[in-house]
Amino acid sequence: MELKNLRIIFMGTPEFAVASLDALVKAGCNIVAVITAADKPAGRGMKLSETAVKKYALSAGLKILQPEKLKNTEFLDELKSLNADLQIVVAFRMLPEIVWNMPPMGTINLHGSLLPQYRGAAPINWAIINGEKETGVTTFKLKHEIDTGNILLQQSFLIHENETAGEVHDKMKLIGAEILLATIKKLAAGTLIEKQQNISEKNEPLNSAPKLFAETCKIDFSKSVTAIHNLIRGLSPFPGAFTKLGEKTVKIFRSFPEKENHSATIGTWETDNKTFLKIACADGYLFIKELQLEGKNKMKIEDFLRGFRSF
């Protein structure tokens, strides 16, 4: 089947998914509909906010569906009437079987890890938190169990030692878009071979990527300085690793770890009030490079120290 004759439904919500949708549109794919989350009130005025995918779809003149419930009869009837050959999911939500099993070629998902590693909602964050040197993207066929379907294509890339989750996200969305398009081209040509996820193939423990909670983001300075540095960059820029500075909550977005034997009390802060702020950890000091004090804007450490004197 020619790529332009393949009827595709695209499902996605955030900016990460826009890169993939844009790649498909520019390649001439036949996107018969885009499904995204419903508009939600946001900001001080609580005005309705459109998803990044919806904004792109509007600019590209694509049909948009925004179902509140994916099992709604009216939505399912409309979905069926589109006669899609294939559905694509990029950063959307869990689909019921009646949805993902509808098209004859099935539904494929783009996931931000090298499956079977880091199955779950936050693969970028957890790979960095765990100090991984490499990650990647995977396209796979959806089935009942989350992130367990047959692998179609994968592409790995390096994580540099000081890269944040935001920086890896921006790199990954472009690599993911390329791999997704390559997957669709091979599916259309009938040259793609599915591969079962083999957990024991590399004989290594399986890491998961569960949803992030507030407790995940709280910094424990009794841990190694490297582990804390990885937590900070793995949660930057969102949701942000946090601690207390006096009575105020402070989020830390960039840091630099320095291993050193010391006798300082774990968690104590030291500064020259001009250029550096460091915190004592189990095996060294964590130098803060960028932070945000509760109620204030995010700022570099030099700017922060210029206006803050109380510890």
Strand content: 25-35%
Strand element count = 15
**Largest sheet at a glance?**
7 strands, mixed
Q: Reading side by side through the largest sheet, how are the strands ordered?
A: 5-2-1-6-7-8-9
Structural shape:
elongated
Contiguous low-pLDDT stretches (5 residues minimum) are none
Mean pLDDT: 94
Structural class call reads alpha/beta
Just give the CATH class of the largest domain: Alpha Beta
What is the helix content?
25-40%
Look at the structure and name the CATH superfamily of the largest domain: Formyl transferase, N-terminal domain
Distance between the termini: 67 Å
Instruction: Output the number of helix runs.
Output: 9
Order of helices and strands: EHEEEHEHEHEHEEHHHEEEEEEH
What does the radius of gyration come to? 22 Å
User: How many domains make up the 3D coordinates?
Assistant: 2
The CATH topology name of the largest domain reads Rossmann fold
The appropriate CATH architecture of the largest domain is 3-Layer(aba) Sandwich
Structure, described:
The structure is a single chain. This protein is an alpha/beta fold and 311 residues long. The chain has nine helices and 15 strands. The strands form three sheets. The chain has a seven-stranded mixed β-sheet. Strands 10, 11, 12, 13, 14 and 15 form a six-stranded antiparallel β-sheet that branches. Helix 1 runs parallel beside helix 2, helix 1 packs parallel to helix 6 and helix 5 (123-129) runs antiparallel to helix 8 (225-234). The N and C termini lie far apart (67 Å). The model has no long low-confidence stretch (mean pLDDT 94).
